[in-house]
Predict the 3D structure of the following.
Amino acid sequence: MMNNQVAIGIDIGGSHITSAAVDIQNLVIIPETLFSVQVDNKAKKDVIIEKWSEGINKTIKSVSLRSSTKIGFAIPGPFNYIEGIALFTGENNKFEDLYQVSIPQELSNKLLTTNNDFRFLNDATAFGVGVAAMGKAKHCKRVIAVTLGTGFGSAFIEAGMPLVNHPDVPKDGCLWDKKFKDGIGDDYFSTRWCIARYEALSLKKVKGVKDIAEANTPEAKQVFEEFGTNMANFMMPFLEAYRPEIIVMGGNISNAGHLFIPKLKESIEKQTGLPISIEVSILMEHAAIIGSAKLFNPIFWNHIKEDLPSI
């Protein structure tokens, strides 16, 4: 395969980096180029950059890229996606030591290839672009993609393109920062809410959502029922404005989807009468890798580059 048809797609998670080479014409991951490296997000800048470069270099080696390399990142915010500058602070509880660090500048010294072109996309947006290109939402015109994990990510996709500035879509195409109850969406649709709510009901401390799902107690069932009902109430105005054909979910909490999606679906249909399909993506980080590599599809890039958020 010609090198100009290959881009490296990268998914930056809270505890790992996953990197793979993608055939950007057919939007498929090239076999035996996918590598994951564990990363401590509380580590110092040099350690994080070292780990990231380790993962990317494994992929570079696996496709024998020698000179110029296209590298697309799916990375959570706050982040300046235009310049590639990290804006994480203590409030974000991850990667604080990368604050105001230029990722292209730091990585350029560490990679095996010298002429690197870096592009950046929000991780939830990249996930949405990926599932619309190759996943459950491939033949749907309007899609909402949601990632549920450490934080609450979302993307509104129309005909394969993320919408950011559009009358049917909330400001910035984001849901995490929109008001809900006593706070914002991110306070209610994240791991920390599930853990805190389970502890409040059961007086038991757990490490993650998997523990709650496996507990299978009345309190655990209540947590997931509340999660589903809350999400329906929160999403309602956005669903009525956008009218998607499908909601596709990813992230760790989506693994417990069977415990909260029935309630979510029932509440949405009862309140709006909208027939809506809600699916959990089996692609997981593969979707974000495909979405970030698609930044090097010229039509896609020209369409979205002016809409990239700088926070």
